[in-house]
Write a structure and sequence with these properties.
By secondary structure, the chain is mainly beta. The protein contains no helices and eleven strands.
Length: 163
């Protein structure tokens, strides 16, 4: 026995990838806007201009380490990650975590995933695909952000203009 109390592994109730999350401070309600499974880009390498991750966890006991990472599924390469801790008032509480990201690097087409990890254990994974495709502009738009792909359906996530 190590003398340290056993800490239960948190459970993932939900893990969403979307364009943005609105957090209403008056009601404490969250709205995930623009959920997606596919991102269409004009070319690679590129950067996803903006995206958000919303995760809901429960069974959190004490201050629990948490890591969020983006991986490329083809070779499990970790492309980006962040580390922190999560705490809850009691183990039965539902804790919503919001992560807003900008300029997410994408080197090639394929399948990617956001993972939640605690103490080296994978809690949950949310996959999405990156494809190259044509974008079309809304009627009357000259320049600016593309609104939607011709094929297949995907969110309005243009590449970062700094490349």
């Amino acid at each position: 026995m190590s003398g340290h109390p056993s800490i239960a592994t948190p459970s993932v109730v939900s893990l969403l990838v979307c364009d943005q999350v609105i957090d209403d401070k008056l009601t404490n309600k969250k709205s995930a806007i623009g959920l997606f499974n596919t991102v269409v880009v004009p070319k690679v390498p590129t950067r996803i201009h903006q995206l958000a991750i919303m995760a809901t966890l429960t069974e959190i006991t004490g201050k629990t380490p948490l890591q969020v990472r983006l991986i490329r599924d083809s070779d499990n390469t970790i492309l980006m990650q962040t580390n922190g801790h999560v705490d809850a008032p009691d183990p039965l509480a539902m804790v919503d975590l919001l992560f807003a990201m900008q300029g997410v690097p994408i080197a090639e087409v394929g399948q990617y995933a956001f993972e939640l990890v605690s103490g080296g254990e994978l809690l949950g994974r949310r996959r999405f695909h990156v494809l190259i495709g044509q974008q079309r502009k809304p009627p009357g738009a000259e320049g600016g952000r593309p609104s939607s792909p011709v094929n297949p359906p995907a969110p309005d996530i243009p590449p970062d203009e700094t490349e």
